[in-house]
Design goal:
Blueprint (H helix, E strand, L loop, with lengths): L16 E6 L5 E6 L10 E8 L6 E11 L4 E5 L2 E6 L10 E8 L5 E11 L5 E4 L2 E9 L4 E9 L5 E12 L1 E7 L2 E8 L3 E9 L5 E8 L16
Antiparallel strand pairs: 1-2, 2-3, 3-4, 5-6, 6-7, 7-8, 9-10, 10-11, 11-12, 13-14, 14-15, 15-16
Length: about 230
């Protein structure tokens, strides 16, 4: 088992930070700040920090993009950043969005615009094989959700979005490794789980299996997992 040690704060001064991503050269880091989105519309923002590659600290942090509602997660590919916003302060239902910003030569986020809207609690977002995947809820009463995959075109826009896998309960995040997807679910905040799925050639997900805090043989009890 691998453990973490020598942990220390590398940057501070953020406002309800949730998502973290790096440019492809690891020169800059981006942090989503939900800020006071619960009381003020479009008050979320993205911070940019320079990465000190000698100490791994984040330096010269400043605001690089504003005007987001609950910016939850962020991911980058080439010269584009994608931000998931699951809802607005006025409604938790069908008010989520996926935005794209261009990354300029100074690492700043520019020309930000919504690509997808009217999404339902789209918290998780990740990129794999030039496809963008995001989580969402399809039934607010039961918490049933799904993962959607969209092809990323040359200009950074999204095309041919389709359901990659369904029948997941409250999926909130997704990451990829070695042709597998790892999905965090959190049914009723009682049984957090991590599912592992195969990534198919058509960029759908299958053969999903998982373990949770309710598994009697699981050594680690999960509680309200957000990141992975």
């Amino acid at each position: 088992m691998h453990t973490l040690s020598g942990c220390e704060t590398v940057a501070n001064g953020f406002n309800w930070p949730h998502g973290l991503a790096f440019t492809k050269d690891y020169n800059y880091a981006y942090i989503t700040n939900i800020n006071n989105s619960t009381t003020s519309l479009n008050s979320g923002y993205i911070s940019k920090c320079r990465v000190n590659k000698l100490t791994a600290s984040l330096e010269e942090c400043s605001t690089t993009a504003t005007g987001f509602n609950f910016p939850w997660n962020i991911t980058t590919v080439e010269n584009n950043a994608y931000i998931s916003s699951p809802y607005t302060r006025s409604s938790y239902t069908n008010t989520g969005s996926i935005s794209k910003c261009q990354i300029n030569t100074n690492g700043n986020l520019i020309q930000c615009a919504n690509l997808l809207s009217n999404l339902n609690q789209s918290t998780g977002i990740s990129i794999y094989n030039n496809y963008l995947y995001y989580t969402s809820i399809v039934n607010n009463s039961t918490g049933e959700g799904k993962i959607t995959s969209c092809q990323i075109l040359g200009d950074g826009s999204l095309n041919a979005c389709k359901t990659a896998v369904s029948n997941l309960y409250t999926p909130i995040n997704i990451v990829f490794n070695n042709n597998h997807a790892y999905i965090i679910t959190n049914k009723n905040n009682l049984y957090p789980s991590i599912y592992i799925c195969d990534v198919n050639i058509d960029q759908t997900l299958s053969n999903c299996s998982g373990f949770s805090s309710s598994d009697q043989y699981q050594a680690i009890a999960f509680k309200q997992i957000i990141g992975l």
